[in-house]
Specification:
Elements: E1 23-29, E2 35-40, E3 46-51, E4 57-60, E5 74-80, E6 86-91, E7 97-102
Antiparallel strand pairs: 1-2, 2-3, 3-4, 5-6, 6-7
């Protein structure tokens, strides 16, 4: 994230892998300073997370997401609103796309 003074805050989800095509990919920053993103773990599975302004992470997966499909499957968050709710999409075990809404504080 770039601050008004030109400095940056960088971050990686603690569960993200460090191999090729793994790591953290942010997608949206809301007015409150929360960022929604995905991370790819060491097994090449995609997961969602929200990083809050205090630096804490909330990781989540859509209930029917198929993380075993590698980087072509899993949970794909897209945007977060002012309340921190995250909308996105996931890929199931059949390879079909579906939408989801994640609300902070829910499993």
């Amino acid at each position: 994230m770039r601050h008004p003074d030109g400095s940056f805050t960088t971050f990686d989800d603690p569960k993200a892998g460090t191999g090729t095509f793994q790591g953290t990919a942010p997608f949206s920053l809301n007015r409150g300073g929360a960022t929604t993103a995905q991370y790819i773990d060491t097994n090449d599975n995609a997961h969602g997370f929200e990083r809050f302004p205090d630096g804490q992470f909330a990781n989540f997966d859509a209930p029917d997401a198929a993380p075993g499909l590698g980087s072509t499957g899993g949970t794909r968050p897209s945007t977060n609103n002012a309340e921190g709710e995250v909308a996105g999409w996931y890929i199931d075990a059949s390879g079909l796309n579906h939408g989801f809404l994640w609300i902070p504080g829910t499993p």
